[in-house]
Amino acid sequence: MAEHEHVRVAVVGSGFGGLGAAVRLRREGITDFVVLERGDRVGGTWRDNSYPGCACDVPSHLYSFSFAPNPEWPRTFSGQPHIRAYLERVADVFGIRPHLRLNTEVTLMRWDAENLRWEIGTSRGTLTADLVVSATGPLSDPKIPDIPGLADFPGKVFHSARWDHDYDLRGKRVAMIGTGASAIQIVPEIQPQVSRLTLFQRTPPWVMPRADRAIGTLERKLHRALPVTAKARRGLLWGIRELQVQAFTKFPGELDVVERLARRNMARAIKDPALRARLTPDYRIGCKRILLSNTYYPALARPNTEVVGALAEVRGSTFVSADGSETEADAIVFGTGFHVTDMPIAERVVGAEGRTLAESWKGGMAALRGASAAGFPNWMTIIGPNTGLANTSMILMIEAQLNYLADYVRQLGLLAGSGRAALDARPAAVDAWNERVQRRMERTVWNTGGCSSWYLDAGGRNTTIWPGTTTEFRRATRQVDLAEYEVLRTPGRAHEGAQRTVEAGA
Question: Which superkingdom heads the taxonomic lineage of this protein's source (predicted)?
């Protein structure tokens, strides 16, 4: 990029959120924007996570943009290669390639209060932007626990999101750390290859059957010839999950029937009563993410697999679990998730008062309608605080936030006149929104189910999940309410300095 380049909008990240924002900006007639991506290709988490068995646990026809239907999905639940290829096609079909700045990592974003714009430092130079759309996503920076002795382990170590495809696991003794969504996909893939697989489990997950199948040629042909059939399929998938969320948010005590199905799924494959007891959660189903697999339990029942407690210590090549058992390993695979409630990008964003977003969020993440943080004018996040979902497609939430972004851009254009304008979320508005969200969270299974999940931050507050339906969120983000923002503008040219105005209704 040219040094000191200025753009109207800078989008950070090129996963579903970033590419969706780019498409929406073009649809709004905005072409003066860039997409800053630290990787060498688009795809976000679907580029980074290429571990064996990586796939989505949301049906393909729902886990895609409504404006970019794909009649060619090969399976009802598609794998990582097909999802990444879909995102590449989105970048091509919607003309996003010219806007991409690949291999460009954002190192610092600082608000310039005088000129009402963001100064953005990257690994390839500096630029400025009127508006920043942060679409780095919550599943982008791997989290590895601090385990005594890990630094001295002489074998191979890698995280599921940084899979080393050059390392051959065949015949190796492997320690798999974690039992989350990635781990239950990895375990069945590597179990037949390794000599010994030790699964270190802190908390067992609830695992339901995965209703996955190939989508036949005739089905795909029908979706191509009659796009309305694919739209109807998507609508049915959406409707079923909208109904399901009612149980999670309003009637968590009525989930017994779902638990019985999960127990039956386990009992079919796990005949050893001791192992079954070890794999049975002691919390309400749904409190942690419900996982889908038909192969996880059978893999754990194989003779070369052992399930032990959480990893407590590493002594050379010896692994000590919390239950006191010891095992030897040649390699460690961490399936321990990501920095979700402490997003690293927040350390790199400096707002109007000279504080980083991380400092502002020290007591817990909070943003107006999941998008705007107080003190950070013209900085929006896609998949921000309390926009996550536990039972349906995040693309639905992303598209709702894109509606909000579109209106945000329209409002800025109307307010700017001959100068610049910025919108800064009022602290009272952020607080009111957050209090409403947390109040609704109180009765949900995520707060009452008796578990400690990655949905909760260090203070025990759920700053990750949206406690309602996607319909409700879409309604809440349909347009920007200027009463929730303070309007900043320059009186004329940008160099004349900014004025903070508190207008009637602003």
Answer: Bacteria
